[in-house]
């Protein structure tokens, strides 16, 4: 994969003042910031680690589910970034975990059917327009949060995906 697929161009706007206070010349100069698949994998690992250290709460909390979902999203996007640029990955998959997983090469699709059911449940709650893990929902509370995935199962799936990513040469940090 060429370097163009692994970088983000950020435009730095610089204003040059002339002696005329009303005249400004704006000259954009690009700054290239590499966004490698390995960085996305590393961030997925950090979100997973953050979810692991959260103390259990007596009441429901969406925070661990959000951290695990974000870890999965970043892990899947890390794999897509091996062959696509960030904008293409963002545009094609957004926050849809199932769509992103299903687009992986067959040899990277390591989840069993029951694990895919958990991922599907997670994706429906994590993805737009619901974003249930980001915003409190009275409807979700009235349903006893039954539409959410089981946290322990989601943790195991996240660990499985991130561990597999750790074994891929393109994602090594």
Largest sheet: 2 strands, antiparallel
| C-alpha Rg (nearest Å) | 20 Å
Would you tell me the structural class of the helices and strands? alpha+beta
> What's the count of strands?
2
Give the strand order of the largest sheet, numbering strands 1, 2, ... along the chain. Answer: 1-2
User: Could you tell me the strand content as a percent range?
Assistant: 5-15%
Distance between the termini: 17 Å
Query: What is the helix/strand order?
Result: EEHHHHHHH
**Given the C-alpha coordinates, what overall shape results?**
globular
Which spans of ≥5 residues are poorly predicted at pLDDT below 50?
A: 1-6, 9-13
Q: Mean pLDDT score, rounded?
A: 85
So how many helices?
A: 7
Helix content: 40-55%
Secondary structure: elements and pairs:
Layout: E1 7-17, E2 24-34, H1 37-53, H2 63-80, H3 86-93, H4 97-102, H5 113-126, H6 138-142, H7 151-166
Helix pairs in contact: 1-2, 1-7, 2-7
Could you explain how this protein is built, in words?
The N terminus is likely disordered. This protein has 7 helices and 2 strands; from the N terminus they run ββααααααα. A two-stranded antiparallel ribbon has the order 1-2. Strand 1 and strand 2 form a beta hairpin. The protein has 173 residues and is of the alpha+beta class.
């Amino acid at each position: 994969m060429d370097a163009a697929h692994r970088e983000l161009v950020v435009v730095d706007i610089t204003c040059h003042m002339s002696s005329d206070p009303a005249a400004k010349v704006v000259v954009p100069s690009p700054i290239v910031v590499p966004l490698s698949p390995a960085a996305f994998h590393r961030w997925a690992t950090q979100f997973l680690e953050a979810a692991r250290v959260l103390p259990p709460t007596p009441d429901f909390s969406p925070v661990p589910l959000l951290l695990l979902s974000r870890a999965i999203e970043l892990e899947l996007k890390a794999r897509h970034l091996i062959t696509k640029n960030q904008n293409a990955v963002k545009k094609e998959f957004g926050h849809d975990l199932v769509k992103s997983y299903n687009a992986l090469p067959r040899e990277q699709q390591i989840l069993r059917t029951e694990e895919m059911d958990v991922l599907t449940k997670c994706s429906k709650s994590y993805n737009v327009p619901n974003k249930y893990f980001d915003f409190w929902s009275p409807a979700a509370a009235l349903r006893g949060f039954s539409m959410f995935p089981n946290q322990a199962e989601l943790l195991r799936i996240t660990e499985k995906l991130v561990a597999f990513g750790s074994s891929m040469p393109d994602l090594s940090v």
